[in-house]
Amino acid sequence: MFGRRPASIKSSKALAYVDAFKHQAGAALTGQALYEGDLTIVIRIWYASKRPDLDESLILDCLQGIAYENDRQVKEKHIYWMGVDKTNPRCEIEIEKRKATL
After folding, report:
1. 36, 55, 87, 90 — which has fewest CB within 10 A?
2. Nearest Cα to 45, choosing from 94, 10, 102, 99?
3. pLDDT, tens digit, 9 for 90 and up, residues 21-60
4. Residue 76's CATH number
5. Which domain holds residue 83?
6. What are the residues whose beta carbons fall under 8 Å from the beta carbon of 14, sequence distance 6 or more?
């Protein structure tokens, strides 16, 4: 607990992922303005093993301040488990403004 609100502490493995993610994504998005408004995101993930530790919510958290201000902007998510790639585990991310629906 932090004060009166519940909070969780990320594992050392998750913290290392966050650092690597911010370094790579920050370099890829240098000079781009943050997305505004409601967003749609597509994430394709290749894991290092069949027992993945990575939760896509960590990816959404990592993108805060890099691609958008807050992950609450993401109103539509498409998450795909692409398979195992032991030599090159990765994720590919597409973000776009959400189209208005009736």
Report:
1. 87
2. 94
3. 887 877 677 778 899 999 999 999 998 888 877 778 888 9
4. 3.30.1330.70
5. 12-97
6. 53, 58
